[in-house]
């Protein structure tokens, strides 16, 4: 399994915003959208703010792949959908740590968003 390099993780950690592109149904890459990203261990995660009904989350489930731009890092990724409580709790902690001062923190750590946790795995 591919892993993030330490240099990539350090660059990504400095930037609170991730831009994610996922292919449309026709295979064309959709315009990038902005989402939050967090690190738990040496892995990167994102969540659907509005849960599993978020359009980007549905596209990620359907396509299984996408492209990210964050902190000067451009990378193709594949998506995994962890549901084990330990990982989900670690991701919560990542959000609490990185976005502690944001009024948008609470919705991203509630059960609806927890169900829409996505691991971003580097490809190539």
Automatic annotation (TrEMBL):
Protein name: DUF2255 domain-containing protein
One matching Pfam family: DUF2255
Organism lineage: Bacteria, Bacillati, Bacillota, Bacilli, Lactobacillales
Organism: Enterococcus florum
InterPro entries xref list: UCP028498
């Amino acid at each position: 399994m591919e892993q993030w390099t330490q240099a990539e993780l350090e660059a990504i950690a400095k930037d609170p915003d991730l831009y994610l592109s996922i292919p449309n149904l026709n295979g064309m890459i959709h315009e990038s959208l902005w989402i939050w990203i967090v690190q738990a261990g040496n892995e990167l995660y994102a969540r659907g703010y509005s849960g599993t009904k978020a359009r980007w989350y549905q596209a990620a489930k359907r396509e299984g792949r996408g492209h990210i731009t964050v902190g000067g890092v451009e990378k193709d990724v594949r998506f995994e959908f962890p549901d084990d409580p330990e990982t989900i709790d670690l991701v919560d902690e990542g959000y609490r740590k990185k976005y502690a001062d944001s009024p948008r923190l609470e919705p991203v750590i509630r059960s609806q968003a927890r169900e829409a946790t996505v691991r971003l795995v580097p490809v190539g």
